[in-house]
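Regression report. Comparing outputs from two consecutive submissions.

Submission 1:
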Amino acid sequence: MDTTSLIIFIIVGAFVGWLAGVIMRGFGFGIIGNIIVGVVGAFIGTWLFANVLKIQNIVSPLVDLVIYAMVGAIILLIVLGIFRKIVK
């Protein structure tokens, strides 16, 4: 992965993490937390779409990354919310 791709990946991760936090209400993690949620969400979403659902190339590579990351980040936040309730 070259430097430009890494920067785009981090920017998309931050945006998607923030947007997932807005959608899921109450999950604000700050800029670093949003990047982590977005990047982990991208890995989860890419794995889910490519391996489980066998869906690839929806629109374009960048739009696909945003869609995969958004779905993955929302799934991640749902799992974190369930985990928080169990731990309390």
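Submission 2:
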Amino acid sequence: MPFFKIKHITNYRYEAPVRDSANQIMLYPLKDEYQKVIRHELNISNSPEVDVFIDYYGNEVGTFTQHEPHNQLSIYSKIYVETSPKRLPLDDIFVTEQWRMLEELSQETPYIDYLKQPLFDGADLLLDAAMELNEKGDSPFKIAVKFCNYVYENFEYIKGVTNVDTTLSEILRLQAGVCQDFAHVLTTMLRFTNIPARYVSGYICPNKNGMRGEGATHAWAEAYIPGYGWLGLDPTNNCIANEKHLRLAVGRNFSDCSPVKGVYNGPSGHILEVNVSVGYDDEEAFDDPHFQPKEVAYSKPQPSVGDGKNSYQRYLDDMLIQQQQQQQQ
């Protein structure tokens, strides 16, 4: 069984002291029979007390506050995880029975949340693509795999053309994006065909062939398959997400799963650095980090007309978007 070590460092440096920094972290791996957490070391500058709770979707969430003035905030997470492969669906239940089972689930909690899809420009085109791929006699498993392949084949993997605030309409117009965009498109297509789908945030571990997003924070989708449960699908790499995909959190979309986010009282100028490394049981691989650095230039919130928000509200919105953008590349 694979044994992995993951290091995830988030570091904020501020242009002047800030205070009342309220933060939420989703850096606790999900725990089940396929993912065993051996050890988790979490160190935060100034050692604040972290309150931990389980959210509606079953994720472990930590919250903490830094009241005293500070010029820097560092969050260091080091995880040791053992994973086990999950068998693939046998797909041996009559197809009509599987679709009947999904129809019944559509009125049950929590599947209702994983079937809702807000309206967006371009929805008809994506719905048409989903319906065209949905051939008579296909099982939910076969359709889910087809949709995963469709996203992989029809969307180009390009870093920097989108961010966490990019809408589905913009992703469809660009026909490009990164893992979080691919995951959002796939979950939408699955929901169009009444297959519950959820967004997954986590890490993908390196292999000899190389994969997009390896050694970094990553995102993929899970489809609910009758008689089986949640099946992981990685449209960024067109593969089943299994023992090399480490799950941190699940939800409807990225906003439910952001690894680190928060607000503070002080000047908006800051630099955010994210450093993630993923390795196997050998220390050399673990100590060779895969960097995800990005600097946010010092800037002041600019006045805006007609958005109904004051400058402080706009500054908080901008800061939150900048923070979240670094977590999912």
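Expected: both submissions complete independently.
Actual: both completed, but the second showed a warning that disappeared on reload.
Relevant detail on submission 2: The radius of gyration is 20 Å.
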